[in-house]
Write a structure and sequence with these properties.
- It is a single chain.
- This protein is α+β, with helices and mostly antiparallel strands.
- It has a domain at about 20-60 and about 95-170: 3-Layer(aba) Sandwich (NADH Oxidase), CATH 3.40.109.10.
- It contains eight helices and four strands.
- The two termini are about 25 Å apart.
Length: about 190
Amino acid sequence: MPAPLLDAFAYLAARRSHPAKFFSGPTPDRAALESILTVALRVPDHGKLEPWRLIVLNRADMQRLADLAEDRALRLALDAEKIAKGRGQFDLGHCAIAVISAPVAQEKVPLSEQLLSAGALCMNILHAATASGWGANWLSGWPSHDPDFAASAFGCTGAETVAGIVHIGTPGPQAPDRPRPDLARRVQWGLT
């Protein structure tokens, strides 16, 4: 039997997202973000394609994104609630990492594996930020999945899409933990 990494297992057993709307105080500086991202980039990547790119967003960037989200919502004639929701995640943000899925044309590595690598990178950023003592929340919202917004905000071209936006900050008050999935309902043991 392998030797368990008890600290890592305990961390994973207790992992939870911190609500970004309650972040307060300082955000990680460039050195802290470089440390977080260096660890986060240790992600499964079949073929070593690096099928993603990252954009570090600061407060000024968040304000620009809030304005772009509102403008896009108005052009789409969305209701006030959608406008507020699209703006809100950026209005409240101070620091985030946008993970852009940037698939590479490669016959041996299916698109699905490349997309999953970008998703794994989002999760690794959450883990690395949280393990560093910061609050982290993967919060993308409807604007990120709108191709026109993604193009104007993040320069997405071709097959590029926003895999996720991970907000990082000083955690605020912690809400009660949400119910977790029931293992008996979600796991099948064998093929029969």
